[in-house]
Design brief:
The complex is a heterodimer of chains A (444) and B (160).
Chain A lengths: L1 E5 L3 H13 L4 E5 L12 H6 L14 H5 L2 E3 L4 E5 L4 E4 L4 E3 L2 E4 L3 E3 L12 E3 L3 H11 L4 E5 L3 H12 L3 E5 L12 H13 L3 E3 L4 E5 L6 E4 L4 E3 L2 E4 L3 E3 L2 H5 L21 E3 L6 E2 L6 E2 L4 H15 L13 E5 L4 E6 L12 E7 L2 E8 L2 E8 L5 H9 L43 H10 L5
Parallel strand pairs in A: 1-2, 1-7, 2-3, 7-18, 9-16, 10-11, 10-16, 11-12
Antiparallel strand pairs in A: 4-5, 5-6, 8-17, 13-14, 14-15, 19-20, 21-22, 22-25, 23-24, 24-25
Helix pairs in contact in A: 1-8
Chain B lengths: L1 E5 L9 H9 L6 H10 L10 E4 L5 E4 L8 H5 L6 E2 L6 E2 L12 H5 L6 E3 L2 H4 L6 E3 L11 H5 L5 E5 L1
Antiparallel strand pairs in B: 1-8, 2-3, 4-5, 6-7
The chains are: A alpha/beta (444), B alpha+beta (160).
Chain lengths: 444, 160
């Protein structure tokens, strides 16, 4: 079997690795338009901050392709997919015939139509190339303006503040991280960021970026202006669907796939930030742009490409973990429930200083969570959401300090081997108490 | 594939497994000195990687890492440091080419809540990052410390 994978980030690399394990004889080619050895996009802020060298961003070893016997075509751009002739055509004239194809082309930064974004020292924050350009420009830059207080924007802002730059983040909405956190959670993270030296302007946006040749200032919609010698645009991403569209594959915002991650075209699958998924926590279709979802989709797509049918279900689109300065935060699932929501949600919250916890329930099933300041056991709550565990029996204890997996262990093993399975069936019988007394050294 | 198994009826909730775990992972394998040093430096106390929690009916339940098949913490790890050893089956984020950067994705992923964030300098060592702390099956020992210190043999190692 000849397998071709377009895209060399999370979904593409995971699929290649998985496919090699399933199909030792297959000829596997990974094509990436980035010249860098596969690296973790999520770590570019650590490079900008100066904590990780470019090699430190690799999420597999530096010999991944050799070790797995996979062809790695780096710095190679795919021009079009011929789905009838089952061939991928590259911009440099090369061709890659395939039996099975995976499209894992990811997303790219969305750049809004603000005047002046075409000049020097304006960057996006999405790739190793962006990070390297920012690092080199940061040597002379002193004042940075970041457009957008989403994840990428705040990561960039924090990293540059740690390098001693004066950083101002401009956000259109009334809070930071508007897609991830509610108002209370975002206020805690905002004050944590501000203590690290980042300045944040809310309810404001950039009208124009000014300068001759390179940025000199930024005009805001409230008619004030900021002196700036570097601008970072972090206003969201858009899926790279063009290759799929040209090949006649069904797309909307992202590529449409079935429950086996197959596209509308025969022998073509898709995974990662380029696809739309059904989010079980909100019941909506969305493009997730989350590392763990891309990895899982890469794995499941590889199984299906190898002919081992594997259903991709229970995806949760919103899942984020973050710690900019001192305060960690995790948000998972349906957390943004408006007062005007027609649906019947129940919200539980707990607030103690820097610690804020919020749980969103519907019909005694957990739909979403926000943990700020104390993130211990967050994954357990996330599992309750993914597995839709009926919590009616333990609802009053959900935010107790001692509430843990132990309280629901009899309800759900979350799909793994149960370490408690060999517990004596005579548990709590007379023989049990005799044994327990003996174990505790009590002689009767 | 190695994993821990717990005989719940033998657990009295004495938490010696927690102390044994913290001792094993403290500098010089000395829990009390590590705890005193942390308190003196106003640093976080040592962290246990096995947690004795209370079950629904009040019984004590040692929560252990299951070293899962297709572990979610491994899938979630964006630096690639969380790996499952293909031979032993042990899942750990330490001792690999990639390093833990404290992104907390694994904490968000682990269904059993047995990975803990640590800002503890003694644990972080030379790393510039906070670290995720989890069961590493005690690489310096033949048998994990929690198994050895349990007075009631409630915890055992399975290899299946």
């Amino acid at each position: 079997m000849k397998a071709v994978i377009i895209g060399g980030s999370a979904a593409g690399i995971q699929a290649a690795e998985e496919l090699r394990g399933l199909e030792p004889q297959a000829e596997i080619t990974v094509i990436s338009d980035e010249p860098h050895y596969p690296y973790s996009r999520c770590l570019i802020s650590r490079h900008v901050e100066g904590k990780l060298a470019p090699e430190g961003l690799r999420f597999r070893t530096g010999r991944f392709f050799e070790q797995h016997g996979i062809n790695g075509w780096l710095g190679s751009r795919v021009e079009r997919i011929n789905s009838e002739g089952k061939t991928v055509h590259l911009a440099d004239g090369r061709q890659a015939p395939y039996d099975r194809l995976l499209i894992a082309t990811g997303a790219r930064p969305f750049v809004p139509g603000i005047p002046g974004l075409k000049q020097g020292n304006v960057f996006t924050f999405h790739s190793m190339a962006d990070a390297e350009a920012i690092v080199s420009a940061a040597q002379d830059a002193r004042q940075v303006v970041v457009l957008g207080a989403g994840f990428a924007g705040l990561e960039a802002a924090y990293a540059l503040a740690r390098r001693g730059k004066q950083v101002t983040v401009v956000e259109r909405m009334g809070q930071i991280l508007p897609n991830q956190l509610d108002w209370t959670g975002s206020a805690i993270i905002q004050s944590d960021l501000e203590r690290s030296g980042v300045r944040i302007l809310l309810d404001n946006s950039v009208a124009a970026v000014e300068g001759s040749d390179a940025v000199s200032s930024v005009a805001l919609t409230d008619r004030s202006s900021l002196v700036a010698d570097m601008v970072i645009v972090a206003t969201g991403t858009r899926p790279n669907v063009e290759l799929a569209q040209q090949a006649g594959i069904a797309t909307q915002r992202g590529i449409i796939v079935d429950a086996y991650l197959q596209t509308s075209a025969p022998d073509i699958w898709a995974a990662g930030d380029v696809i739309e998924i059904d989010d079980i926590s909100t019941g909506r279709r969305l493009c997730s742009a989350t590392w763990v979802n891309a990895i899982l989709q890469g794995r499941f797509a590889a199984w299906n490409m190898a002919g081992r049918r594997r259903l991709y279900t229970d995806a949760v689109g919103i899942q984020n973990a973050v710690q900019f300065h001192h305060v960690p935060a995790i948000s998972f699932g349906q957390t943004l429930v408006g007062a005007d929501s027609a649906e019947d949600f129940e919200v539980m919250t707990l607030r103690q200083g820097q610690v804020y916890k919020k749980l969103v329930l519907q019909d005694d099933i957990l739909r979403g969570m926000i943990f700020v300041g104390d993130i211990a056991k967050a994954g357990f709550y996330a599992a309750l959401i993914r597995h839709r565990v009926d919590l009616s029996a333990v609802k009053q204890r959900l935010l107790d300090d001692d509430f843990s997996y132990a309280a629901v262990m009899d309800l759900n093993s979350f799909g793994q081997k149960n370490p408690y399975a060999n517990t004596d069936p005579a548990w709590e019988s007379d023989a049990f108490w005799a044994q327990r007394a003996q174990a505790a050294g009590i002689i009767r | 594939m190695k994993r821990l198994s717990v005989r719940l009826e033998r657990c009295t909730g004495c938490q010696r497994c927690e102390i044994g775990c913290m001792a094993e992972h403290a500098p010089g394998q000395d829990y009390y000195t590590a705890r005193a040093a942390a308190a003196a430096a106003k640093a976080p106390a040592p962290i246990t990687r096995i947690l004795v929690e209370s079950g629904g009916d009040g019984r004590a339940v040692p929560l252990v890492c299951r070293h899962c098949h297709e572990a979610l913490c491994v899938s979630a790890c964006m630096s690639g440091c969380m790996q499952k050893d293909p031979k032993t089956g042990i899942v750990t984020n330490m001792g690999h080419e990639q390093q833990c950067v404290g992104c907390w994705m694994c904490i968000m992923a682990c269904p059993y809540g047995v990975i803990t964030p640590s800002q503890d300098v003694a644990v972080i060592g030379g790393s510039p990052f906070a670290q995720a702390i989890k069961c590493d099956f005690c690489p310096q020992r033949d048998t994990p410390a929690c198994v050895e210190v349990c007075p009631n043999n409630a915890i055992e190692v399975l290899d299946d």
